[in-house]
Amino acid sequence: MNRQTISCAIVVFNEERNIDECLDTAKWMDEIIVVDAFSTDRTVEICKQFTDRISQRPWNGFGEQKNFAIYQATSDWVFILDADERISPELREEIESILGSNCLNGPVAYSVPRRNFYYGKWVKHAGCYPDRQLRLFRNGVGQLDDEEPHNKFIFEGPRADLTAPLDHFTERTINDHFRKFRNFTTLAAQERARSKQKVYWTDLIIRPLFTFYKYYIPRKGYRDGMHGFLVSGFASMYTFVKYAKLYEKFLPSSDSFQKNPPLK
After folding, report:
1. How far apart are CA 57 and CA 37, in angstroms?
2. Which stretches make up the Glycosyltransferase 2-like domain (predicted)?
3. What are the residues facing 87 on neighbouring strands?
4. H helices of 142-194, where?
5. Burial letters 218-252, b for 16+ CB under 10 A, else e
6. What is the DSSP code (8-state) at residue 165?
7. CB 111 within 8 A of CB 134
């Protein structure tokens, strides 16, 4: 029985710090498709060591960029990978078992548990694990929506959950939080503006405080020590900045929602 094929789809922008280790964990796949948003560092040069399937196009959102990468895939299955993620050996083995089974009546999409590493430590609480992400799917069954910055994969058919982890080195230093804040909070505010037309003082005070409480107490961030405290604190700050930008958006002369490239 022949093994089914698989494509890795990844979008990048100035990821020379991450991309080599990332693609090294995906080089076993049948093809690697890279869509680059005109990086100004060595990202494309490094990608060429792993694949010749490299396209460059302007950035117009995570959903549109990733869908473009997905549409380039020629394999039976597609796996979406981010530059700061790594496919663990256990996850590769689990995916290979699916490819080798050749079951045509089984699930068409699978979620994977994601281990989020902050400052070199796997944070197991504060809502950081299992942090399931739908990443593996049959080619052609669906696409990502336009909800930024965290898109959802829309598809029809049965789904299932894998057990082996995808490793996510999300923030290596405290400074990494701030490098992402500008773009991600702007995208989140844009998305929230679709359904909320006014910002109240409770949005700027109560919501951030409740976010910290939710991550630190019910989601047990305290069990990860200082790492859990910092993750909870930055989650609270993210909520505050999102609503502050939403408030600014409603000011008469605001131009705060101009598009920015994805900073990482």
Report:
1. 5
2. 7-93
3. 166
4. 174-192
5. ebebeebeebbbbbbbbbbbbbbbbbbbbbebeee
6. P
7. yes
Residue 258 pLDDT? 45
Whether 58 contacts 261, CB under 8 Å = no
Q: Band of the pLDDT at 264, cuts 50, 70, 90?
A: very low
SS3 242: helix
Q: Which domains does the chain have, with CATH numbers?
A: 6-170 (3.90.550.10), 173-249 (no CATH)
CA 107 to chain centre: 22
Judge if pTM exceeds 0.85. yes
Query: With 0-12 CB in 10 A as exposed, 13-18 as middle and 19+ as buried, what is 158?
Result: exposed
Give 172's DSSP letter: S
pLDDT in tens, 204-216: 999 999 999 999 9
